[in-house]
Design a protein that fits this description.
Largest sheet: 3 strands, antiparallel
Low-confidence stretches: 1-6, 202-207, 210-214, 220-264
Structural class: mainly alpha
Number of helices: 7
């Protein structure tokens, strides 16, 4: 019985030893598993951090691209990627995108005000456009501000040139009108002078035609006076009715002393002179007709359009302009707004 008890004691020791071995091995296995799990968790955390950092960089790049291109698709892509960030990390990129939208809205507003000023040319619209340009103070808008200011300055210059041209045209029109009035007055004065020169001749003609009976009476009176003997003394101071003997005629005692018969010499019959002396009727000078007022030449069309050629297609600016400078300004604005690619110019309609 005692021997059996001793055997049992050895077995107990073996069992205890085996149990200790098993327990020790199990504890080591548990420790190993815990270490492996910890390493996996650590790797997962590192990967998650790396992925999030990559996402953050992607957000920064997308925001920068949206600022650079201002393209609607790029802006939408940046806003979509920002939403993948943790809520507390979305604040800064969202603020940047909001600011970008405000910049683009301001640029668009200024362009619209410029277009209105270019079309109306009103001083109030020009001042509104200038005020909007002055409000573009951020460095991001420096290039846009410069282009818009150049565009507005060209508009101001074109308006100034147009006003100057209109003043010159108005002055020239006034001078032409004054010259035309002076020419008309001079022509009227010349016509009056010619009419005054013709009127006396016509009066003389009427007076001559109105006195034929008087002339006939005067002619008859002259004829009767011619039949009366001339009572005026002869050149030899002889009395009327005295006879001058003809000594060459033997019958009158000329060359003979025996004849005493004397023949009287008749007095010559005077030629009647008409009174008054008739004059030929003058030919009246025709009254000159004044030249008709010249018809001014029609003013050619002064309408212009601006255009921009991107290399593949020709684009026209909206509406027409009164001067080439205005059309060029609008064309340049279209050219600048599309990246300054191709060529631009202005054409007269």
């Amino acid at each position: 019985m005692e021997k059996k008890s001793k055997m049992s004691g050895k077995k107990k020791l073996l069992v205890v030893g085996a149990a200790l071995v098993v327990i020790g091995g199990g504890a080591g296995l548990v420790v190993h598993n815990q270490k492996v799990q910890a390493e996996k968790i650590e790797l997962a955390e590192k990967k998650e951090k790396a992925d999030y950092k990559k996402l953050s960089l992607q957000v920064d790049d997308s925001v920068k691209k949206a600022y650079d291109t201002r393209n609607a698709k790029d802006i939408e892509m940046a806003e979509t990627i920002i939403k993948k960030l943790k809520e507390q990390d979305q604040k800064d990129p969202k603020a940047k995108m909001t600011k970008l939208h405000s910049f683009l809205d301001l640029i668009k507003k200024t362009d619209q005000l410029l277009a209105t000023a270019e079309k109306s040319k009103k001083d109030s619209d020009i001042k509104a456009a200038q005020k909007s340009i002055d409000s573009e103070k951020d460095a991001y808008l420096a290039k846009d501000k410069k282009a818009q200011q150049t565009r507005l300055d060209k508009l101001k210059k074109s308006i100034e040139e147009q006003k100057k041209k209109e003043a010159e045209n108005k002055k020239k029109a006034a001078e032409d009108k004054a010259k035309q009035e002076a020419d008309l007055k001079r022509e009227a004065s010349t016509t009056d002078s010619k009419t005054a020169a013709v009127t006396p001749e016509k009066t003389n003609k009427e007076a001559t035609n109105a006195t034929p009976a008087a002339e006939a009476v005067n002619q008859e009176a002259g004829a009767e006076s011619a039949q009366v003997p001339d009572s005026q003394p002869s050149p030899n101071n002889q009395a009327a009715g005295s006879v001058i003997p003809d000594y060459s005629n033997p019958n009158t005692g000329g060359g003979s002393t025996g004849g005493n018969t004397v023949q009287p010499t008749p007095s010559p019959t005077p030629t009647p002179t008409p009174n008054p002396t008739p004059t030929p009727n003058p030919t009246p000078t025709p009254t000159p007709t004044p030249d008709p007022e010249p018809t001014p030449d029609p003013v050619p069309s002064q309408k212009w359009i601006g255009w921009w050629n991107d290399g593949t297609q020709l684009h026209q600016t909206g509406g027409t302009y009164n001067t080439q400078a205005e059309a060029l300004a609008a064309a340049e604005a279209l050219y600048d707004a599309n990246g300054m690619v191709g060529t631009y110019g202005a054409s007269q309609l």
